[in-house]
Specification:
The complex is a heterodimer of chains A (120) and B (246). By secondary structure, chain A is an all-alpha fold. Helices cover 81% and strands 0% of the residues of chain A. Chain A has a single domain, classed as Fumarate reductase/succinate dehydrogenase, transmembrane subunit (3 helical TM bundles of succinate and fumarate reductases), CATH 1.20.1300. The mean pLDDT of chain B is 93. The chains are: A mainly alpha (120), B alpha+beta (246). The interface between A and B is medium-sized, with 21 and 27 residues.
Chain lengths: 120, 246
């Protein structure tokens, strides 16, 4: 180790801060999601029933926020773990971050696409 | 007079004939207040003068004799054998190893070069931008209380050796250097808030800490580097988003 190699990673504050913000969002949105799907609105799990619930745009928004926050929280957590191992150098860490963003956005896009019939 | 067995991990990586680590047992006479360091002196004087270990103050204030004793990070001079659990065993054995996860020089002596390079990187000294006052720089009792915890650090390296984030990333600053950064960031007399910030506000600084708290458990001075690091993370947000430099 040389002194000049110590600080080659800039940033980190946003990822730390968003990990906390998404944690709070997860608690709130997950609670709403679970209460509405499993406690308050018990019925047949079929397209009609789910469609009726998702017709409420507020609930659709909660589900999308839940998906986005869940993806960010999970993938950022995975990123922190992997950076402790092989992805510790700057170039590998950047590649990892970019790769995980692609994975996250693809899954988010897929989730929104699945909900699109009730959004559009 | 009873006897205690000292099981010491010996290794000389530069010895071409025998570079591997090995355990060696030594019988040491046990009297009331024998410390591990005194036991090591006895071994050096009576059995093997080549046994290597660091020590200096013998009063747990210099941090030189940090070792891994009976499965815990301890200062050899501070560790009174009668207070170890093994004292109740029929044949008590004190195991002494160098601090793990730190490069070895010989026997119980670790190579602390990286540790001190990182410590120096954080600029662990008081930095003033304004003109010095004619008398001493005054500090209120409340401000002084802020640095009560971090100034007790003796740089023994126990926290650094115990931190899994350090094991995984050789360039991570580690708990001791970051605790020292915290020590100056909360000091009302220091004026290098902006200059020091980029040194610890990055992913080889505070954000590499995953609050595992091994450092807190290992610290022979019972300090909490984790607490200091968490304070720094929040301070980074306050400073960079809201411009509050306190």
């Amino acid at each position: 180790m040389k002194a000049e190699t110590i600080n080659t990673h800039r940033g980190g504050m946003w990822s730390w801060l968003f990990q906390r913000i998404t944690a709070v969002l997860l608690i709130v949105c997950l609670a709403i999601h679970l209460i509405l799907t499993h406690i308050a609105n018990i019925g047949q799990i079929d397209m009609e029933n789910i469609g009726a619930r998702l017709a409420n745009h507020g609930l659709t928004a909660v589900d999308i926020i839940l998906l986005a926050a869940g993806l960010y929280h999970a993938l950022n957590g995975l990123r922190m773990v992997l950076m402790d191992y092989w992805f510790s150098t700057r170039s590998r860490a950047l590649a990892l971050t970019a790769g995980l963003w692609v994975v996250g956005l693809v899954f988010l896009g897929y989730g929104i696409w699945a909900l699109w019939p009730w959004i559009g | 007079m009873a006897e205690i067995t000292f099981r010491v991990k010996r290794q000389d990586p530069t010895d071409k004939k025998n570079p591997e680590a090995r355990w060696e047992d030594y019988k040491v006479p046990f009297e009331g207040n024998l410390t591990v360091l005194e036991g090591l002196f006895y071994i050096q004087e009576q059995y093997d003068g080549s046994l290597s270990f660091r020590y200096c103050c013998r009063a747990s204030i210099c941090g030189s004799c940090a070792m891994y004793i009976n499965g815990a990070y301890r200062l050899a001079c501070q560790t009174n054998i009668k207070h170890l659990d093994i004292i109740h065993d029929a044949e008590p054995v004190v195991t002494v190893q160098p601090m793990p996860h730190v490069p070895l020089v010989k026997d119980l002596v670790c190579d602390m070069d990286d540790f001190f390079a990182k410590y120096e990187y954080i600029e662990p000294w008081l930095i003033r931008n304004s003109q010095d006052p004619e008398k001493e720089i005054l500090q209120s009792p409340k401000d002084r209380k802020q640095i009560d915890m971090p100034i007790d650090c003796i740089l023994c390296g126990c926290c650094y050796s115990s931190c899994p984030s350090v094991w995984g990333e050789e360039n991570y600053l580690g708990p001791a250097a970051l605790l020292k950064a915290y020590r100056f960031e909360v000091d009302s007399r220091d004026e290098a808030r902006k200059e020091r910030l980029p040194r610890w506000d990055n992913e080889r600084g505070v954000y590499r800490c995953h609050t595992i708290r091994n450092c807190q458990e290992a610290c022979p001075k019972e300090l909490s580097p984790t607490e200091g690091i968490q304070w720094l993370k929040k301070a980074a947000v306050r400073r960079r988003l809201f411009g509050r430099m306190k």
